[in-house]
Design brief:
alpha+beta, 2 domains, 4 strands, 154 residues, 7 helices, Glutaredoxin
């Protein structure tokens, strides 16, 4: 998708929220969906379009772990580290993903396909240990499942 097309799509999103006091979070969500992350020029456009300071937009984006200020992989793998998942050995799941992807948590594969990160809680304790890839939840996941899970995103 062309950069101009994405910028116009974001302008359309902003316009659809004009006058809505609670617009910032849904606009950030839609902007991230359009760009794959929240580039600074998109944040500036949002601030201008919603009539709020850029510092406020950046502050909200940086507060929430699911918003990205830098390009991430096409697929973001989140390994849950909540108490329930920790007890269910999520550390071994993280190690298995690191080994399979060849990156550490917080990194992106050289081809830009996968980013690996940890998160506090996915809210699916009954599926622990749980993993989320983009918007899909997997669980319980065990080290021997990792290659089969990743194969779904080839």
């Amino acid at each position: 998708m062309e950069a101009l097309d994405r910028t116009q799509r974001l302008r359309d999103v902003i316009d659809s929220y004009t006058g809505n006091e609670g617009a910032l979070l849904p606009v950030l969500q839609e902007a991230q969906s359009i760009f794959g992350y929240l580039p600074r020029d998109a944040e500036a456009l949002i601030a201008d379009g919603l009539g709020i300071p850029l510092a406020h937009v950046i502050g909200v984006r940086s507060f929430y772990a699911f918003f990205y200020g830098e390009q991430v992989g096409r697929y973001v793998v989140r390994v849950c580290k909540s108490s329930s998942c920790h007890v269910s050995r999520s550390a071994s799941i993280l190690r298995a993903f690191e080994e399979a992807l060849g990156v550490k948590a917080g990194e992106t594969t050289p081809d830009g396909k996968f980013s690996l990160e940890t998160c506090g809680c996915l809210g699916v304790c009954d599926l622990s240990p749980a993993v989320m890839i983009n918007d899909r939840i997997f669980g319980p996941v065990y080290p021997e499942d990792i290659k089969k899970v990743l194969a779904q995103f080839e």
